[in-house]
Amino acid sequence: MTQDKPLTGSALVEKVKELGNLGKEEKARACGYYTKTKNGVERVNMMKFLNALIDAEGIELDSTSEGQGRGGRSASYKISVQSNGNLLIGSAYTKQMNLQPGDEFVITLGRKHIHLKQIGVAEDDE
């Protein structure tokens, strides 16, 4: 059972950078990627840590999917309406566009499309 929720995303990347010269197991432990057995022995989960770090950096290892199907966390350029009626645009797209928390958009609805225009960005930059 993990003591704290493991860090993910930019928080994980920042923490790893802060930890500088520590070994990878110490970094994984400090970022919450460990469990304790019934006997109280700590086990570092390096695979989960490294996969989370790869995801956080936006590195796509499964390039063979080429947008076909889900392909793990890679961008498929398809989304579905959720059961609550929302459309969720995942982090793969916001990272690719270098968007930051708080960026705002104007939404324009067409017959069968949605256009997002970022507020405060010149049309040449789009």
UniProtKB/TrEMBL annotation:
Name a single GO cellular component: protein-DNA complex
| Keywords noted in UniProt | DNA-binding
Is RNA-binding one of the keywords UniProt gives this record?
Answer: no
Query: What sequence ranges are listed for the domain SpoVT-AbrB?
Result: 76-121
Q: Name one GO molecular function term.
A: transcription cis-regulatory region binding
For the keyword DNA-binding, the answer is yes
Tell me the leader sequence span.
Answer: none
Official protein name in the record: Transcriptional regulator
Species per Swiss-Prot/TrEMBL record: Rippkaea orientalis (strain PCC 8801 / RF-1) (Cyanothece sp. (strain PCC 8801))
Please spell out the taxonomic lineage of the organism that makes this protein: Bacteria, Bacillati, Cyanobacteriota, Cyanophyceae, Oscillatoriophycideae
